[in-house]
Structure prediction request, 232 residues.
Amino acid sequence: MREIVFDTETTGFDPTNGDRVVEIGCVEMIDGLPTDKTYHQYINPERDMPEGAFKIHGLSTEFLKGHPVFPDVVEAFLEFVGDDAKLVAHNAEFDMRFINWELQNAGYDPLSMDRVVDTLQIARTKFPGSPNSLDALCKRFNIENGHRTLHGALLDSEILADVYIELMGGRQQGMDLGADAKSVYVPTGPKKERPKRTFAISAEELAAHDAFLKKINDPLWLSGQDNEQPTD
Prediction:
């Protein structure tokens, strides 16, 4: 199965207010594991970069002016994601809204939301009430992300691919007994032989045993027989 883990960086939060995509990063996964194939592209948004967005990803207006506009890279992007691969993103609604806005503005059909896997929703389901940002999930799964000083679409996609693997059960999927499974001790080796009783039963023990049997009504060992209690 082919999946594309992806991320975008933008000039803001709302494409309908003029915000644009400035970076796309994608990581290919086959059968639950990343391959060596990636897609990465900086994009000229043809507008200024707000200070708040710059502090998040560090992509300046001057830097992006030297890169192509979205219509010039759309074919390469669509070729990489293909027609039926699942699209995996963290808070996928945000990224898909921007990608589809750019696609439609360039004269292309939007990508179907039926293809989308949102790791944020998966994390919220698995860990309700817990922090589920990408950084928080890295901490939960002991995934190294110390080099992530700024957001970057390809870097975040590579980290998300590792997080996604853990959310789906780890690199040995199918070996997990489930979230509620507990460790069970299964003894191995030869059965330990216990020594036989070597001392005789005392008269007091026999009397106590007989007295106990007389207190039992309809004992199972007399089923189908006359339920006469044992006597001395």
Q: What stands out?
A: DSSP finds eight helices and five strands in the chain.
